[in-house]
């Protein structure tokens, strides 16, 4: 029987593109035998044709025009691995319009233009695979839509930005400041060129939005989400958190109340109980904890970024896409998949700030004088906030003190009012730091 020929094209050949190429070349024969296919790599687009690459690519394959990859009749699968949202979107839509398969790791693009891309899939019959867009080598998208498809997810909690996890882990392990470790992380190339993506939580937010769409059928906008990064977390907070029985991690948190329909999405530094698995995930590792109504708790841990881990996820998509082309039956992303997601979203609505509840950690710096604590506690009491733990400490030789406390569960709305009122107290020296305390439902 004649073997189906499949051409894989690349738009973008940097860290991920070269990793995918390297591993696919190494596995090519095995994949061809296993899948009964003939695989070729007809076209690779880069920006700078003269740049030295870590892998060798025949000169005639290279082009500086990504549309040559899109339009090449020998290319069935277009790997969009260039990043960015403007041009990448154009090439993605152009390939989908030709009915091709696009494989991507581009979470920012999916966040910004997911609706359009999915609409193009429905209209033109192409397919879009994006396993590598969330949590690198962890097969979270497959897990959600295949392995755990029987479940509704009351909560999905994830450490989904390896850079922040690396910085927080090292601060705590080495007792060094945020600035010191950030400096190292930048030198090691762990921080995106636009560091706000990592440090202010936006990269994790994009990933959480993708998961929320797949699990709950709603595209969550930044106006409907709490997004905070790690810049204000100090070593002191880490020590205090540990005294209270927690570690601080940047968490992506998606919660759904199936009785009321309320859906919430947040990315923020959170205190995680020391004995929970998520608290023990360190360095560049990612972890995602899914609480499903059928399977209960499932936790996936793995490398969240980097050439090899991300390539592993991209190749898993490429293999699925090749099988889909061979059998003329794609499992992902089909128009009925997309419709099923949107149907899930029909019963979901964004939660109000009154509905989003948790315990909180609060740190304030105060002028050390008689009566300060009375003013502070009266604000908490006025808003009905009960305190579970409190530690006050002085700074020798200075007229200032720090109060750190953990509250009992209350709402975001209440704590927002508390913080606003605390800021107006004359003895408050700097803006209070408010962090959420993660309370696992199962596990
Ligand atoms: N790196 C990771 O660990 C990781 C993890 C998960 C997801 N991702 C996602 O994977 C994607 C690729 O990331 P990366 O780290 O591989 O990026 P990268 O190393 O910066 O590579 C980008 C590639 O795109 C090419 N390119 C950029 N603009 C182009 C244009 N206008 N025309 C043609 N080629 C263009 C660049 O060409 P030149 O080489 O000639 O400059 C380069 O080869 C991004 O969406 C990223 O968010 C990355």
What do these coordinates show?
This protein is an alpha/beta fold. It folds into three domains: 4-134 and 308-345, NAD(P)-binding Rossmann-like Domain (Rossmann fold, 3-Layer(aba) Sandwich); 140-303, Dihydrodipicolinate Reductase, domain 2 (2-Layer Sandwich), CATH 3.30.360.10; 357-437, Alpha-Beta Plaits (2-Layer Sandwich). It is 39% helix and 25% strand. The chain has helices spanning 15-35, 66-71, 86-97, 107-124, 140-147, 162-174, 178-187, 196-199, 202-216, 235-244, 307-327, 335-345, 372-382, 412-423, and strands at 4-11, 37-40, 44-45, 62-63, 77-80, 101-104, 127-129, 153-159, 226-227, 246-256, 262-273, 285-292, 296-303, 349-350, 357-367, 387-394, 400-407, 410-411, 433-437. Strands 8, 9, 10, 11, 12, 13, 14, 15, 16, 17, 18 and 19 form a twelve-stranded mixed sheet that branches. Strands 1, 2, 3, 4, 5, 6 and 7 form a seven-stranded parallel sheet that branches. Strand 5, helix 3 and strand 6 form a beta-alpha-beta unit. Helix 1 (15-35) crosses helix 11. The longest helix is centred in the first third of the chain and has 21 residues, at 15-35. It starts with a strand and ends in a 6-residue tail after the last strand. The model has no long low-confidence stretch (mean pLDDT 95).
């Amino acid at each position: 029987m004649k073997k189906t020929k499949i051409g894989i094209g690349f738009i973008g050949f940097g860290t991920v593109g070269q990793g995918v190429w390297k591993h696919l070349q190494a596995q090519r024969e095995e994949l061809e035998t296993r899948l009964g296919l003939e695989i070729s790599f007809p076209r690779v687009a880069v920006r700078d044709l003269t740049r030295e690459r870590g892998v060798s690519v025949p000169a005639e394959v290279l082009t500086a025009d990504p549309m040559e990859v899109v339009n090449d009749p020998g290319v069935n699968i277009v790997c969009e691995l260039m990043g960015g949202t403007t041009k990448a979107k154009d090439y993605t839509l152009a390939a989908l319009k030709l009915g091709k398969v696009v494989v991507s790791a581009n979470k920012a693009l999916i966040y910004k233009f997911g609706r359009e891309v999915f609409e193009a899939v429905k209209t033109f019959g192409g397919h879009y695979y994006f396993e590598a867009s969330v949590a690198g080598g962890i097969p979270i998208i497959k897990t959600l839509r295949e392995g755990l498809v029987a479940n509704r997810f009351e909560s999905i909690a994830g450490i989904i930005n390896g850079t922040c996890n690396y910085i927080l882990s090292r601060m705590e392990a080495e007792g060094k400041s945020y600035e010191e470790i950030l400096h190292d992380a930048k030198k090691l190339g762990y921080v995106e060129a636009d560091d706000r993506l990592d440090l202010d939580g936006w990269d994790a937010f994009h990933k959480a939005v993708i998961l929320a769409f797949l699990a709950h059928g709603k595209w969550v906008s930044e106006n409907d989400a709490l997004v905070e990064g790690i810049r204000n977390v100090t070593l002191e907070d880490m020590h205090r958190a540990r005294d209270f029985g927690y570690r601080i991690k940047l968490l992506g948190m998606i919660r759904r109340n199936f009785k009321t329909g309320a859906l919430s999405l947040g990315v923020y530094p959170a205190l995680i109980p020391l004995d929970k698995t998520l608290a023990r995930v360190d360095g560049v590792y990612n972890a995602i904890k899914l609480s499903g109504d059928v399977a209960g708790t499932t936790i996936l841990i793995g490398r969240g970024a980097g050439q090899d881990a991300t390539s592993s996820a991209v190749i898993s998509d490429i293999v699925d896409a090749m099988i889909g082309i061979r059998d003329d039956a794609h499992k992902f992303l089909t128009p009925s998949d997309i419709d099923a997601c949107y149907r899930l979203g029909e019963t979901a609505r964004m939660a109000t700030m009154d509905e989003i509840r948790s315990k909180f950690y609060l740190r304030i710096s105060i002028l050390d004088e008689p009566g300060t604590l009375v003013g502070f506690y009266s604000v908490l009491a006025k808003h009905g906030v009960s305190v579970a733990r409190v530690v006050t400490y002085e700074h020798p030789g200075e007229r200032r003190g720090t109060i750190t406390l953990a509250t009992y569960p209350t709402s975001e709305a209440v704590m927002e009012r508390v913080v606003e009122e605390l800021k107006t107290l004359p003895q408050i020296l700097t803006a209070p730091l408010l962090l959420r305390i993660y309370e696992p439902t199962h596990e």
